[in-house]
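FYI - complex with LZUJQKHR, inputs then prediction.
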Amino acid sequence: MRIAIAGADGRMGRMLIEAVLQSPDMTLTVALDRAGSPALGQDAGSFLGQETGVAITDDLGAIANADCLIDFTRPEGTLAHLQACVEHGTRCVIGTTGFTEEGRRAIQAASQKIAVVFAPNMSVGVNATLKLLDIAARLLNSGYDVEVFEAHHRNKVDAPSGTALAMGEAVAHAWGKNLDDIADWARHGETGARETGRIGFSVMRGGDIVGDHTVFFCGTGERIEISHRSSSRTTYAQGSLRAARYLARKEFGLFDMQDVLA
Ligand SMILES: NC(=O)C1=CN([C@@H]2O[C@H](COP(=O)(O)OP(=O)(O)OC[C@H]3O[C@@H](n4cnc5c(N)ncnc54)[C@H](OP(=O)(O)O)[C@@H]3O)[C@@H](O)[C@H]2O)C=CC1
Ligand SMILES: O=C(O)C1=N[C@H](C(=O)O)C[C@H](O)C1
């Protein structure tokens, strides 16, 4: 498969370039980054001391030279890349988080023309955790207060994380609710007692934390905690390559990591 990486000079972009270069069934053909990035013109493998012959570019027309684009950038970048994917019939794996409802609708619309995997977390472990949360939420559907806590590195720009939102959605869905209707996004000052049936979120940012998530089910006399901790971004990169291979068999449609791992 010919692979394009968007956000080539980012934390995930670099992990993905390394993973693609190590995959015998994949060839890196395109490396994109934003207009004005100091990385433009550099060889995509230069951070590894490796010559790939692929220079980092901001020319979205280059997407025509890939079977699948893997995008870990920012929502506005992803949506521009996605339009280019539609124009060139290139499949797309989206790992970027922080989309508005309108952005999500644009992804849905694009997936009617090309095959897209869109998931806030590509790791096998997190996707298994989402299934565990569904089971826990069905069993603990009354008498338990649910709180979602996440911690990430100091450079993360969106909160709560896409994964924390997906975890909240898993619980809300198991309870037959919409997350937006029952979420408490933050607390400050005189909040009053906690309401039953809400899902609270709290967020920590600091240092180089790769990504920690815990969902608490707090009852009377007991507490259940379901946690996932990432110690390396490799798991996200490997999951993304798995998603790209999955898309090779699809013409169009919107898929998530539960589909890829099924
Ligand atoms: N689904 C998953 O499994 C995971 C998802 N993520 C998500 O992936 C995204 C990227 O994370 P991370 O790699 O840590 O972030 P980084 O900031 O390290 O990398 C983002 C890259 O995208 C570039 N970029 C920024 N804005 C644009 C734009 N408008 N158009 C094109 N390129 C742009 C950045 O360039 P510059 O630095 O010059 O601005 C940078 O090279 C985040 O949304 C994060 O939440 C992260 C890990 C796992
Ligand atoms: O920005 C990150 O780093 C991560 N973002 C994703 C998210 O928002 O859930 C996935 C992972 O937690 C790392």
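DSSP finds eight helices and twelve strands in the chain. The first helix runs from residue 11 to 21.
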